[in-house]
Amino acid sequence: MKTLIRLTILVSTVAIAAALGCSNHENHRLAEMAEKHLEDQVDQNRRMTELQQQVAEGSRRLVEADAKARQEMIVLQREVQGERTEVGRQRDLLEGERRDLAAKRRIDPIIVAAITKVGLLLACILPLVLCWYLLRRPVEPADDQVIAEVLLEDLVTNRPLPLPPANQNHHYLEEEP
């Protein structure tokens, strides 16, 4: 735009100088210079236009590359977000497993102690239950005749029935007829 204004000013200056009546030779030389300058200016304008087109093309490519890069970044951010979500889910699962193991470690010794105590209690109660059962069992009365026969046989035989060893303090069992 500035070059167009300069060109207009230059052409106007040349036209004014020619109109004021400079010498013919100078007018001719001035006209040639104006023409040469005008050609240079046209060439410069053409180069500027080409340069502006190249800049516009480069800008367009830059905008396209930027848009593509932004799209790629959005895709990458989504992937990263997905990976973060997966890592968070796996972390939560791992934390749940850790809590379960910690709870087991607290409960297992309690269960072992309870089983041991119940086993010990059963071992202590079992003989008592057996004794209670034997004491509560109905006993058939002994037949007097059978008892008398056993006692008579013991008296008559040379070998008496074995009895549990007697206490040393009781001498009445040691007497023999």
Question: What order do the helices and strands follow?
Answer: HHH
Total DSSP helices: 3
Helix content: over 70%
Looking at the structure, what is the overall shape?
Answer: rod-shaped
What distance lies between the first and last C-alpha atoms, to the nearest angstrom? Answer: 161 Å
Q: How many E-type strands?
A: 0
What structural category do the secondary elements indicate?
mainly alpha
What's the gyration radius in Å? 64 Å
Q: Could you explain the architecture of this structure?
A:
This protein starts with a helix and ends in a 21-residue tail after the last helix. The protein has helices spanning 2-19, 24-136, 144-156. It is mainly alpha-helical and 177 residues long. The protein has one domain.
Give a brief outline of the structure.
It is built from three helices and no strands. It has helices at about 1-20, 25-135, 145-155.
SSE diagram, text form:
Elements: H1 2-19, H2 24-136, H3 144-156
Helix pairs in contact: 1-2
